[in-house]
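Record type: monomer structure entry
Structure origin: computed from sequence
Chain ID: A
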Amino acid sequence: MRVHRVDPIQDARSNMVLAQLKTNGVFDKLILNTLEKISREYFVPVNSLSIAYGDSPVSCDIPGRYLFAPQTLGILLQHLNLLPDDKVLVIGGNYGYTATVLFEMGCKAFVIESHPILVAKCREKLKKYNAVIESGPLKLGLREHGLYKAIIVEIGLNTVPESVIKQLEEKGRVAICLTMGELDSAKACVFEKKANTLHEVFTIEANMPPCTEFIEPENFTF
C-alpha cells in the first residue's frame, strides 16, 4: 500500500501563498509560483525557522534588519510590474531571499548590503546566480550598475532617499516601507519616477520595524 507522506514545509509554503497572498489580492501567477517554489526557511536565522512562513517580518538578527512579510513582498512585487531581464536593485539584501525571488522571476538583481554578516550570508545563498553583491553604505545605493528599472528597499525608513531616486530609470519604480517610528504605523509603498519626481502608485498598511542605519531628511514622506 502506498503511503502518502506529508511535507510540512511544502504545506507551510502552500498555505502562505493561499492565506497571505491570494486572499490579499496577489494574483500574478509568476509571483505566486515563485514564492511557492522558494524555500523561505533557507533565508532566515536558525532561531526563526518556526516563523519563516508567518505573516510578520522576520528578524535577520541584526538590529533594524528584517525580511519582508510574505504578503508585503508579494504586493510590492505585483505593483512593480517587473518583466524578465529588468534590472532591479535590492537595498538591504539581508539573507538574500528577495534577490532570489527576483532571479527566479527572470530579473537581473543587484544587491547592496552594509553589514559584514549579511554580506557573507547573501553571497553564500546567492552563489548559484553569480549575483552582484556589493558591500557598502546602504544610503549610496549601487550607482555603477544603474540605472535600474526598479529598486526594492528592504528596510523600514522614514522617507525615500534622494540617492534611490537618482538611480531609477525614468518611469522606474521603487518599493519601500515608510515608517513613523512605530511597528503599526508603517506603509508599504510603490512610487514611480516621472521627471525626477516620485508619484505614488500604491500604498497599504504594513508591518515593518524602522531601521536607524541611516535617516534621511524628511523631504518626501507619505
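Annotation 1: The chain has six helices and nine strands.
Annotation 2: The helical segments are 8-21, 29-37, 70-80, 97-104, 116-125, 162-166.
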